Amino acid sequence: MSRNFGKVLLALALTALLTAVALVVPASAGQAVRLQYRTSAPGATTAQAEPWLRLFNDGTTTIPLNQVKIRYYLTGTETYRFACSWAVVGCSTVTGQFTGQYLEVGFTSGSLAPGQNTGDLQLRFYRADWQTFSQSDDYSYGPQTGYGDWDKITVYVNGALAWGKPTGNGPEPTPTVTPTVPPGTAVLFDDFTYSGSSDPRLAQRGWTVRSASGGPGVPGATWSPSGITFPGGLLTLDSSTNGTAAGTVQTELSTTSRKFHEGTYAARVRFTDAPTSGPDGEHVVQTFFTITPLRYNLDPDYGELDFEYLPNGGWGEPANILYSTSWETYQADPWQAVNTHTEERASFAGWHDLVIQVAGGRMKYYVDGRLFADHGDIYYPETPMWIMFNQWFIDLQAATGTRTYRQQVDYVYYSKGESVPPATVLSRVASLRAAGTAFQDTVPNP
């Protein structure tokens, strides 16, 4: 071997070595991060993927978590939704957005000291239509149910690769979000990323957690903020009863301002048929609706647009029924209702995208993109309304023991003055989430 040829080989070897080293050099000499992964949904096909992560700081300097991005690589073209089920650092500080290539997880606050780790980040994502999907071909997926170092998920600190091996041969794209909401459109969007019913941001963002007594529901029941929680960014209403009025707890979240009238209302709501605990059988009502206060009996300016699901029937119905009801007015005593309704007698347990369009004298109700009801005429709302979610009991069945029913809400969306098609609502919500928007309210007060 000639000396010159040996030099060439040595140069090539050094180049290869330096290139390999460059792939694993952390963002700075003082920052050395390491990621561990496991899954609690190891099946090749699943209803939701559940990557659980722990991020370690093996370096010598503290890392601000808002400088960290974690990328979990995907295949396919499905539309997914992200949720944080539980995190030691708090789900309210954890964000997730999708590009065509990966889920990017970030943090809004916090820091990671040398020698420490974040503890569990129990994350999950699922298809927007809640259908099962294959995760076995996702680059970052692994079936292991115990934690271990995992370099198929990357970590970036201040935009520089600090851990892992990205998929693909070229540079990774920078996520870009193309707004789908027309400029100037007044919108309310809330992803429900709150720590609990006492989170001060609820009031700051125009929400009221009900604690005042009164109807609807069982006379003497309590409306309790303690029944409202936000696990994994899901508004969760837990209502319970032991068969007595004193032992009955109902739940309600409402906008504080009555500023919603014509436009499009949307929410992704999970109805349930069976209680989370205790025996079944109560006449419970699970809802998404808008409403105007009744100033006096048969007030002509009253308005109410309802989605109401009765998993065990009630009001003379023996079993599951979903109502959409549009109200002109009513009188409480003696009871007189001026309304129109459409109903389907079937189980609606599970997640559903609910949309109400209010425009041109008509109210169109959609369930999962399907036109469910078309109302109008005298039932068209005349005045601005509140947006509400509540879960309450029509009457009591004298249960033995306490039974608790659960309703959940993934998001709420309103667009002022627009009839937005259900598919467009979904794309707009996906766009807002991809931009990292947890809350937006540009709807003016009346």
Automatic annotation (TrEMBL):
<dbReference type="GO" id="GO:0004553">
    <property type="term" value="F:hydrolase activity, hydrolyzing O-glycosyl compounds"/>
</dbReference>
<dbReference type="Pfam" id="PF00722">
    <property type="entry name" value="Glyco_hydro_16"/>
</dbReference>
<dbReference type="Pfam" id="PF00942">
    <property type="entry name" value="CBM_3"/>
</dbReference>
<feature type="domain" description="CBM3">
    <location>
        <begin position="29"/>
        <end position="168"/>
    </location>
</feature>
<dbReference type="GO" id="GO:0030248">
    <property type="term" value="F:cellulose binding"/>
</dbReference>
<feature type="domain" description="GH16">
    <location>
        <begin position="128"/>
        <end position="420"/>
    </location>
</feature>
<dbReference type="InterPro" id="IPR001956">
    <property type="entry name" value="CBM3"/>
</dbReference>
<dbReference type="InterPro" id="IPR000757">
    <property type="entry name" value="Beta-glucanase-like"/>
</dbReference>
<dbReference type="InterPro" id="IPR013320">
    <property type="entry name" value="ConA-like_dom_sf"/>
</dbReference>
<dbReference type="InterPro" id="IPR036966">
    <property type="entry name" value="CBM3_sf"/>
</dbReference>
<dbReference type="InterPro" id="IPR008965">
    <property type="entry name" value="CBM2/CBM3_carb-bd_dom_sf"/>
</dbReference>
<dbReference type="GO" id="GO:0005975">
    <property type="term" value="P:carbohydrate metabolic process"/>
</dbReference>
<protein>
    <submittedName>
        <fullName>Cellulose binding domain-containing protein</fullName>
    </submittedName>
</protein>
